Amino acid sequence: MAKITCNFISYTLHRAVDITVVIPSVTCPDFILKKKEELTHEHEPYPVLYLLHGYANNHATWNGYSMVELFAEERQICVVMISAENKFYWDHGKEDNYFTFLSEELPCFIENTFHVSTRKEDCYICGLSMGGYGSLLHGLSNPDMYAAIGSLSGAVEGAAGNNSPIPSELIEKDIKERKKIPPLYIACGNDDFLIEPNKKFVEFIKENKLDCTYEFVDGYQHEWRFWNLEVERFMDWIPRTDAYAGTKRSV
Fold first, then answer.
1. Closest of 233, 180, 243, 190 to residue 210, by C-alpha
2. For a tag site, which of 2, 19, 51, 52 has the least CB within 10 Å?
3. Is the pLDDT of residue 161 over 70?
């Protein structure tokens, strides 16, 4: 596994930004078990998961508290994690336009810097808490960009005092405009303070007959043990048609 912490100048945010990119690479089992002539860093383009952090976190938090590197290496998927401060992945004007950064500039940077797929069918978005809201915001605002959307303990009602859209309203807009909404994955712990809004949101999704997988799990609050569990389940759930679909490596 290659984990790259990358600092670059963002023309959208008008400052240097940090991101973490996890890229599958040669593993110890590879060079122990394979013949020398079988080892290479050449590979087919990897699918990409944009994985969003929660409130008060940053680009490094997913790696610090979860096993996302292992999960990505096993499933041969590139994972991109950014720092969005506490901005809910929305445009706030001037130099805090995180919606534009994530939806336009970041994919351009990733696709032109790393050997990853540019197909919509190989692109996914998921996040926890504030990041769960962010994944719904971006996935439903740009349904033609992603093959699947995941929200883990998501702030599905949006942010108080924020003018950003509410996910249910985005769904209504997409339906009205006859846009195809990607499959949705919604998960929340039954002891989480956000459980009721998430249950209500799932009922709304079901009423609109959308493709949705949901899990409400006993014994979990708003916590990393739950998000570690669910991000692996999300990775196993996403529809894959890339060169590595249906495979799982030993790491």
1. 180
2. 2
3. no
